[in-house]
Structure formats: C-alpha cells, structure tokens
Amino acid sequence: MISLTDSQKIGIGLMGFGVFFLFFGMILFFDKALLAIGNIFFVVGLAFVIGLERTFRFFFQKHKMKATSFFLGGVFIVLIGWPIIGVILEFYGFFLLFRGFFPAVVGFIRRIPVLGYLLNLPFISGEV
C-alpha cells in the first residue's frame, strides 16, 4: 500500500470536496458559488497532493500553455460569474491537460470486472 503524508491526505480530501462541489454545482443548474468553491478546492487539493513546485511545473510547461490557459481561464470565468462558459472552457482545458493520462486510465478500467467487459465489447473496443 502507498503511504501518504498528512498534506497529501489533506489534498485528497480537498480534491474530493472540489469534485463534489463541482458536480453539485452543475446539478443545481450551474450555481456560481458552488462551482467557484469546487474549483478552488480542486486546484488547492492538487497542489497539496503533488506539491506546489510540481503543480507549477505541470501547469506551466511550454507545450501545455494552451491547455493551462483554457483551464485557468475557465476557473476565472466561473469566479467572475459566467458559470456555463467557464465550465466549458475548464472541461476543454482539463481534456487537453490530462489527455496523456487517458490511455492509462482506460487500461486500468479494462481490468475492473464489469467495466472491463463493457470496454472489451467489439463495437466499443475499437473506439476506446
């Protein structure tokens, strides 16, 4: 089992709260306050989990500047009060930032019993 420091445990909790508030904010018709709180919790939690320096290095790599600008621009747009446009920009930036991790995530999901079976169906396995 992986041992986590106390700050990483706090970060995981903050990221969990962030995802919860983002999801709940979208369920409640893009509530500005919940989305803003979710964004702040998620970004701060990420900094706690991987460290402040590694967070800056991840977001501000030269080849990820477009993705970072979309993601952080979306967070800013949500904070100033345009939640739908901000969330769309955030999702696009999130996809661009983490698209390198998606094959690993799909490979992990393929090993989960029920989800793996669904991903290995002939009409789905060619797409994913």
TrEMBL record:
This is Vesicle transport protein GOT1B-like isoform X3. The keyword Cell division does not apply. One of its GO terms (biological process) is retrograde transport, endosome to Golgi. Keywords: Golgi apparatus, Membrane, Transmembrane, Transmembrane helix. Pfam families: Got1. It is found in: Golgi apparatus membrane. The gene is LOC113048026. It is a multi-pass membrane protein.
